[in-house]
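Worked example 3 (structure in, sequence out).
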C-alpha cells in the first residue's frame, strides 16, 4: 500500500481514495499511479500513526515540501490532516501544501480554514471552470452546482489563514474558460496556474 510517494523534489502523502468529484479529466481514469507511486489505490485508509511512520522511513532531507495529494480528495480526512500536520511541524522544518478540490467546508459542515492556520503553508485548489454550470459538467460533484460557490468561498477563507493560495485549471478547457478562471482567481487575490492534463496514450 503506497502512503507516500515522490514527485519531483516533493514528498506526496496519499491518505484516501474517496472524492466528492468525479472529474472527466481525473488521472485515476487512465492510470493507477503517478510519480514514484505506481499504485495509489489503497487497500484501506492509513491511520495517522501509519502515515507518520511511513514518512519517517523517508530521507526527509531530500525534499522541499510535504504535499497532501494522492488518488482522492485529501480533505475528506480534514481532521486527520490537521493532526498529521501538527506532528510534522513538531519534527520537521518543511512547508506543507494541500492539493484539494476546495470542498473541505462542505465535507466538514463548517469553515475549517482557521484550523489550518500555522500548519498549512500553501493550498492548491482545483478550480477548472469559470461558472457553476461548466464546473458541474466537468467535475460532476456529488454536491451538484453548489460545489462551485463552495470552492470559491473556501479559497476566500484560505486567503485569511494560509500564506499561499493557488487556483488551478487543466489546460484542456477552452481559452475563454481559462480567461474567466484567471479573472476569478485575481478577484479573490489568489495566484493562478494552468496545469497539464494527462491524457491516455493511444
Amino acid at each position: 500500500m503506497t502512503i507516500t510517494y515522490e514527485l519531483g523534489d516533493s514528498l506526496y502523502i496519499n491518505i484516501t481514495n474517496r472524492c466528492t468529484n468525479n472529474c472527466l479529466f481525473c488521472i485515476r481514469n487512465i492510470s493507477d499511479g503517478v510519480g514514484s507511486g505506481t499504485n495509489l489505490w489503497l487497500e484501506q485508509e492509513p491511520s495517522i500513526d501509519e502515515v507518520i511512520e511511513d514518512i519517517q522511513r523517508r530521507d526527509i532531507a531530500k525534499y522541499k515540501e510535504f504535499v497532501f495529494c494522492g488518488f482522492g480528495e485529501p480533505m475528506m480526512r480534514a481532521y486527520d490532516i490537521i493532526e498529521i500536520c501538527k506532528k510534522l511541524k513538531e519534527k520537521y522544518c518543511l512547508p506543507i501544501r494541500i492539493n484539494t478540490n476546495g470542498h473541505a467546508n462542505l465535507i466538514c459542515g463548517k469553515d475549517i480554514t482557521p484550523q489550518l492556520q500555522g500548519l498549512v503553508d500553501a493550498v492548491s485548489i482545483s478550480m477548472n471552470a469559470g461558472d457553476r454550470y461548466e464546473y458541474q459538467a466537468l467535475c460532476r460533484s456529488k454536491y451538484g452546482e453548489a460545489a462551485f460557490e463552495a470552492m470559491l468561498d473556501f479559497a476566500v477563507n484560505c486567503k485569511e489563514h494560509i500564506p499561499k493560495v493557488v487556483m488551478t485549471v487543466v489546460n484542456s478547457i477552452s481559452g475563454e474558460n481559462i480567461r474567466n478562471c484567471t479573472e476569478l482567481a485575481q478577484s479573490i487575490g489568489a495566484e493562478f496556474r494552468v496545469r497539464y492534463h494527462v491524457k491516455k496514450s493511444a
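Notes: The chain has a mean pLDDT of 93. Strands lie at 4-7, 10-13, 65-68, 96-100, 122-126, 164-170, 191-195.
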